[in-house]
Design a protein that fits this description.
single chain, alpha/beta, Rossmann fold, 2 domains, seven-stranded mixed β-sheet, six-stranded parallel β-sheet, 14 helices, 13 strands, 48% helix, 18% strand, Peripla_BP_I, ABC-type uncharacterized transport system, periplasmic component
Length: 351
Amino acid sequence: MKKMKKVLAVALSLVMAGSLAACGSSSTETKAPETGASETAAESTAESGSEAASEVSTDGKVYNIGICQLIQHDALDAATKGFEDALTEVFGDNVKFDEQNAQGDSATCATIINGFVSNNDDLILANATAALQAAAAGTDTIPILGTSVTDYGVALDIDNFDGTVGGNISGTADLAPLDGQADMLHELFPDAKKIGLLYCSAEANSKFQVDTIKGYLEKLGYTCEYYAFSDSNDLSSVCTSAANDSDVIYVPTDNTVANNTEIVNNICTPAGVPVVAGEEGICKGCGVATLSISYYDLGVATGKMAAKVLQGEDISTMPIEYAPTFTKEYVASRCEAYGITVPDDYVALEE
């Protein structure tokens, strides 16, 4: 595998310019996956939205929604957009959004949440784990819906989590089937030996994902090594170590990596080390393949939950909801450069 990496590095260097252009791009628009199952889910979303709209009271109340998004990147942007679109479909001009971005800082999340509490907003959307943790600490009365959160038990330190948080919190989870991601890695790289698990140690859900997938990968015969970085400042050095010592690198749905995919791509591409990603935004930026959800659809699902809460449904009894479909996706240019034969059931990501 090491010899192959050296040969591939030459070929990969020729495509780096194109790859880097892709890494730097960002968009808040998410297209539906080109699969029958996803189309069915999209149709269901539209139908459910129409049904909800017909049930809205006409008392003219305006609902004020505070949105705290941890950081700006494609996945979280798409979840916020889906959430807003779903609620606008139901309430039209009678819903107002105060959308604020914490720029990756947990302390800023707390400041943003305190502002929503002071304004006595009707509901808070906490987009990503740190935002959810800040919201949970900030209020026990205003309804809170999380999204883009991998595991609520881990995020909120709930022992024996049974799927319902209770109190004033519920939401949606972005956890993809980690056993499926391990199987996908094995399908693409059956001859690899050492897998580097690259993640931010400050993100509890990232640690949860790498701990879980490590067990699946080891059952498939791989040797796994953790490569934890504390923030973007030491991502480069840790990623370099991972690239030097690994045949393949796995990155979970990690917000810090998602906002710094160019760093990972600039290191792994010349080194000839492919990256398998936990979600499609990271995959576009630095990966070869992913088994991912649609974050826009996840946001829509969260928006539908919000509509129910605003219309009187008890949030304390609402279980956490999960993405209904997952799609195997790949980046064609990188797979071609690595000489990877992609099975027919994968969908090419736009580059």
